[in-house]
Request: fold
Amino acid sequence: MKVIKNYLYNVGYQVLAIIVPLITSAYVSRVLRPEGVGANSFTNSIIQYFILFANMGIGYYGNRQIAYVRENKDQMSKTFWEIQIVKTIMTLYAFVAFEIFMIFYTRQPEYMWAQSLNLIAIAFDISWFYEGIEDFKVTVLKNSLVKVISMIAIFVFIKGPNDVTLYIVVLALSTLIGNLTLWPNIRRDLNKVSLKFLNPWQHFLPMAELFIPQIATQVYVQLNKTMLGVMVSEKASGYYQYSDNLVKLILALVTATGTVMLPHVANAVSHGDMHKVNQMLYKSFDFVSAVSYPMMFGLAGISLTLAPNYYGPGYFPVGPAMMIESIVILIIAWSNVLGVQYLLPTHHQKQFTISVTLGAIVNLILNIPLIRLWGLTGAMWSTVFSEISVTLYQMWSVRHMLNFKELFADSWKYFIAGLAMFIPVFWMNTHLRSSWLMMGVEVLVGIIIYVGLLFVLRAKILDEAKGLIRKRIKG
Reply:
């Protein structure tokens, strides 16, 4: 039940972390207009490269290392401070690199310096520690409060198209304050450690191993926005960002399992229980498949009217872009299970690194011709193909470790139910009058069709759900 509780906590926060910008973006898209939205998206994509350098692979590495030693508080305390020292030093280096970059970069300097607050905020991010000890309640409750306050601040202070800099500052400060709220709990959770017993640089090379896949991942997460801003327009970069925001909201419900399961699996690996690891993997893969298929087909079914209804006039290109990008919901869900929940905690970093590096290479190779030919649409298809390459390589890597028949046992049922749901929902979305009420009806119809067909096809996920409900009632 602890894993389920942590999953719900993490889902709650991941959804809030994206839903707050979504709530505000319906307002911001109209106030800042496509030009202001695009400027924020483009400059943020640049600062993310420096944040990547400062992070140095610590998210995955710190989470996993804390999970390995969390039953020994002295060792856990030592590990935390060693990793945090490395992170602080890398952040200082990253900021110096940013200052050098700004000597030569003259485009929108005011926006770029405002974005640099995000780089400062990353130095104080210790969420990886609480993920490692599986205490998601602390990070969720404190960061949720900060997110709500930032949402209020946006509605109060952002009033017109000239407030782009202020908007960037509000978002960055909310991240910084959210990170700082986690530090008071450290005194309770860690023992005192003498500096002379710390050896931070022993972690540097293992971090570097995970830094490479993070670089690759960031390339095909941020490169599309950067290249669209350079090759097409900043507005196109903003359209990509807004499509990505809605898709990432859906993905948060699925990929939250990765953050929760990584320390859980890592702890099982540290005890040598590989049978338990594999069984957790099969259940997790089945769960994300059951959830991802309807989310993929459902979002694709309503995307053409969702984007213009939500963001307002001038954002129609977001709809077709979202319909294409919805494909990655299923693909990333699978790669999250295979990569984050299996390859990383079982010490197969090399295979994980190769998979995301392959994705970055595919993305870079396809971006240039596809963006030149089709602009925003080309960037979306490049994203889809790069994610497919990541997942296919990971499947090939685990072909001798996992039983594919058990892994995909019910996947065909989810596909049939999802496709059967998509057809009427898409027809309703494109032929009936567009409104929020009608969209709600379309979503309800989709849910009824999908769940109904799962009962008809006797999907085993329903038995799992019934079992959990019984346990919850008895508990």
